[in-house]
Amino acid sequence: MDDHLLQSLICNFTSKNSPDHPTCLPEMLSCVPHAYVALVAMVTGITYCCREKSTDVAPWSHYSGHTLRWLLSLLLLLCYMCAIGAGAISASDSERPWPYLYVPSILGLVATFLSIGLYNAWETGNCRVPLLSLLVYWTGVGGLQGWKVWRMVHAGYAGDLYVRFYVTIVVAAAYVLLLGIELYLLLTKRYCCGSCCAVPPSLPPSDLQDREMTFYQPFVNPVSMVTYWWLNGFLSLGYKRPLEMSDLGKLPKEHHAAVNHKLLGQAFYKHMTKWTSAHPARSLWASFVTVYGWRFFLGCLFQFVGSLLAFVGPICIDRIVQYVELSHRPPSNVTIPQEVSLVTFDTFARNGFVLTVVLLVSLVTKACCLHMAYYIVMREGINAKTGLQAMVYEKTLRLSSAALTGGTMTTGEVINHLSIDAGNIMDFFFYIFYLWSAPITLVVAMVMLYLSLGEAALAGAGLMILLAPVQWYLAMKMGHLQKETLEQTDQRIKKSNEMLQAMKLIKLYAWEDIFSDMIKGARRKELGVLLKGFLYGVCVLFITRGTPILTTLLTFGLYTLITNEPLTAGKAFSSLALFNILEVPLMVLPMVTRVTVNAVVSNRRLGKFFVAPEVDGTDQELRGESLHTSREMNFVNEFLPSEDQRSPLVINASQLGSETFELNDNTAIQVEDGSFAWDLESKQPILTDLYINIPQGKLTFIVGSVGSGKSSLLNALLGEMTTITGTVRFASAHNSVAYAAQKPWLLNASLKDNILFGSPMDRGRYSAVISACALQPDLDILPAGEETEIGEKGINLSGGQKQRVSVARALYSTADIVILDDPLSALDVHVGTQLFEEGIVGLLAAEGRTVILVTHKLQLLPQADLILVMKDGQVAHQGTLEEISQASPHLFEQWKEEWDEQEEEEEEEDAKKDEKKDEKDEDEKETKDGTLMTQEEREKGMVKVKVYLTYAYAGGIVFVIMAMLAQVALRGFAVARDFWLSDWSSAASSLNGSQLETSYTSMFAEMEHPGVTDVEYYLIGYASLSGGVILTTLIGALLFLFVGYRAAKNLHYAMLDNIVRAPMRFFDTTPLGRILNRFSSDTQTIDQKLQSSVLTIVSTTLQCLAAVVVNAVVTPWFLIPALPIIGFYFFMQKYFRASSRELQRLENISKSPVLASFTEVLGGLSTVRSYKEQGRFSQQFQQNLDSTAKTFMWLNTANRWLGVRLDLIGSVIVFAAALSSLLAAVLGHLAPGLVGLSLTYALSVSGYLTWLVRSLANVEMKMNSLERVKHYTEVQTEPQEGTTVALPANWPSRGEVRVSKLSTRYAADLEPVLMNVSVLFKGGEKVGICGRTGSGKSSLTLSLFRMIDNFAGKIYIDDVDISKIGLQALRSKLSIIPQDPVLFAGTIRFNLDPMDSRSDQELWDALAAAQLKGVVSDLPEGLDSVVSEGGENFSVGQRQLFCLARAFLRKTKILIMDEATASLDLETDSVLQTAVTTAFADRTVITIAHRLSTILDYDHILVLKDGRVVENGSPQELLCDTNSLFSALVRGS
Fold this sequence. Notes:
- By secondary structure, this protein is of the alpha/beta class.
- It is built from 50 helices and 23 strands.
- 60% of the residues lie in helices and 9% in strands.
- It is found in: Membrane.
């Protein structure tokens, strides 16, 4: 054995000056308990390996003192590292190695790792008894450490600041605390006493007991929590195969939308009651503080510690360079002592090698703290966004119709509240701690610069202070521009949404270019504001990047002039590191200011939205509580607590005077002195002087002409209108309501789900309802029967089918009051009669339910118990038929005439409107399993290179190359500047006493230096290179701005142009929310985020290369550890990106159902409210939010996993660079300036590499949005070839239509809907088409427009094959009046003539022909009167009349009427038929029959069956054949 080692083991404790030391024996004895822990760990490891493996994760609970135990263990690790360092220094300063000074500490370090690992394994494995082994260990090692402290005190080492003495005290105290924790656990749980006495273990958290919950972050140990170690298995799975939504499991309950909605809603209500509704924005901020404040404080604490640790780097650089300078001085004659010399704190802190370890530990701690802070604010930001979105949805369910139709807000704005405003609040949460940490960082950095450089630093600080207001001004301007951008985005999305909603009409009228140009116009305004914002952003970037450079230049230039001291390497590069630290808050502050301004704007918008008018009283809830709502005239915004736990937030639109009324037992609803309006500001009520008593259990009819107020009356009863005067009261019992709107609202779900509407299945009742609504034949032909997916807005069903499903929903419900808004108009006679007799009279009347029916079927009036006759917004007459006949004989006679006509004409509307999309026509649009909607496209694997090239070409490939070259030039100037500073400071250091070799490495060694004291020489060079950096920064930023602007513009235009040319099949099978997501969220990402992300990745890539090259030039030995570490970096980013890209794709996909369900419910608010189904819809929406939050949470937690690892490995790079340069300087006389340069770049390379990998992942995530937009630029479009035949100028002049052996289908993979159809319609003929549901009527008319695939046969118009005519040219020469009326937001003039090609007189003539001249002339603005979104400020019948006027105005030779008068009363229908006959006397009119009486005098009748022509001829010919199908239809009517 070595003599020195033997000597060190012979401990003689005679005095303090003895060669042996009083810690020798305790140190060596402490190896025994350390070895004991190693033995326990070995046994435990063998046992673990031998046990049966299980893939299931058993739930666990933390033992007492869990967190404290981990903190003490980390403290022990730190203390043992200090002990090892102090021991190594002591041993190096002595003649003997004295192994006892460091070997036991090394063993203690290892034992601490093992002990905490054992504890974690036993805790997560729910094993308590093995903890006794740790109790033995704490007792043994703690006692020995206490003995060592006692011996050192006894030997006289307590008075001096020896590292070893104080470290030993801390270690002993830590072991005592660990022993106390273990004893407490033993005494409280008695786990060693057997099952009879032991206290049962605590139950695991409820979240862990749910096996589907796999997000373990809140439940793991502190080390796993800050390093995200638990995530390894998940990312390993993502590396092996693409992740799926099912792999994500569930989140803990604290992240659920319902929980955050409840917490945020209750806090908002609390603060609103405190401050009143005048301060909704303030209340919202206060709610955030109440719910999430303390967690943000914890995040800010972590961030504060991490920010302070950032300053350790510059301090270490200064001290290490000083250490190098001292090492270059000639050594003095120092005698190496034989005895042990303990190290003081001062000596310990000056050692360069200790400083490298301190640098490593500080960087590791900083990384863990900062990423923990990022995780906390990210987590709470997601929670806040989810809670806000749930609140927006809940508020939307209560939003009054007046708010949406009265001009106070639009659908696009409400959608933006959900997506953009809530997202801005989340972004603010992400950056919130920079609001205080950035200023603190600036102040601390400036103080340290002052302490290092003196008054020269004040000049630099002054420059920063002078530029700060400029930055603030620019940031505020960017904030205002962001607000303006949001407003312009609102308009663009509103127009996009409107276009997508009405795409079929737009295509039929060949208006794609008109609406595309409108959206492009809105886009140009949006891009104009964005461009201004980009330019301000470049100015901010220029000032942000230029300020530290100018400050450095000014400070270094003045330092020697002011102090008359040379600028040494230590001061130069520690200051440079501080200036690098300053760059982050200077760059972040403008961004944070912008984010803050965005959040303030969004918060104000949300606050205003949350106090927007609601339905006129929360009577849905009040009816459920057997109360009656008395609605007052005055309006105040008031917050009431909700009785429904699902809805913690209730914001009333009016002050409710709620009283309980015991109405007459025979009265279901009572209206007294009622006046109602849609708009709150309206001075002219829509309905006035209403006194109504709806009898209970009876059938009430509401009749009247178009626009008389029938539907408005129903909406007033439902609380959808604003009460001006009077009250609406429901009976104290039997007051639940079911409602079937005039325009059916259906869910994108199965047909069965639409009928059940949340009610439990009662098969007998369900079958009875199906029979009563004549839906069984439809179920028989649907591919999946009742399970058939009917598509968004019921796109898979015909108009009549949709109406019958809507009525079936009302019949199936058990509501006491059933309100039906003109359901029979959309049905043929047979079906309508069956529905009325079996459904309304049969089911409803038999059950004693109150029925309110709006109808034009006057022949049914004798069956009414009460008739309300509406005229000009008033009840002109009410009573039984007999009472009205006595009160108004003239009206009664008029009714008799009309119902006689109806009885003559009622036709088989089975073939009629019972199918707007025809039929089988639409039925066959589905796949065999009944699904219609396509799955959202999702790429897998790496983002393809062609996606990046798409962005480059969209931005301009030449400009992209120029931008890249500018970044290369920028980095070249920056590296040259830093080498110049190294040369400058090394020259100064040589004057300061360091003995350097004259041939030390210098980048500028070839240059002739005028003299090391020539400050002007170095200053001019430094200033010139700094100027190059600033100039190339500006040029590069401007070039990238231009590239991003061009790409955003070109990509949106390409997507828009392609989408408007897509076939209708695409819109039928793609949810509107999915398409809107491309135009909103994905477009916003490309507009505002992708450009900066690409700039970041280019910049950080070049910075990484520069940092590695500089370190390699300075110290080639750096490459030995650096190359494998860099290789590991690239493996890490590849490993991470495999999961991150799929998570990003899943997150993008999960957004679509949120938007789709939100836009869907916006169209059916009155239906949802009438059924009191808000709770169920809220729950479904919250489930969609949970899916989005889940993907976002996993994605951002995975980012933290990556960030921690990259920072940890980066810390190792810094350690390797510091150690290699330190050794090179000590052993090879490396210049101090190059040591400082190496350390500064090494310190930055960690951040650069981290940003590089993060930026790669970030760009790939952002490119996913580009990928999705690119997909929509490649969607197959309709044939775009132009006209290939010569068309006469007035084509078609005759209007002759010849169909030859035509076969059509909706898609190539679907069955034909028309087969071998041949028919001739002569010019000027009036043609009626009839047939049963699914016969192909609408398909035939659509084939004329080439809206579907005419895969066989030909259609000729005036002897011209339409397949050789361009779609625009063809469709512009035809006119159609569709079944569903479509109006656009704008003016009446725009709706009639969007091309602005007609004179006012022509517009008035068209309105007169459509019976609308009186209505429009009564409006204050006439033709320029506003039409609200969807035409909601006009009745359905009036909307249909506007569509008729629009068709009259086109004056084409061929007019198709697709059951266009279904929503009109008989009188108006008769007038319009006459108008059509007159206006189109010389034109071809093709009518899909609604009422057979209207086509009996037509020239030509075509009867279809199963897609084939079965009868073709004049009405007289077909009627003469008593066996003809047409005769049967007429007889049936």
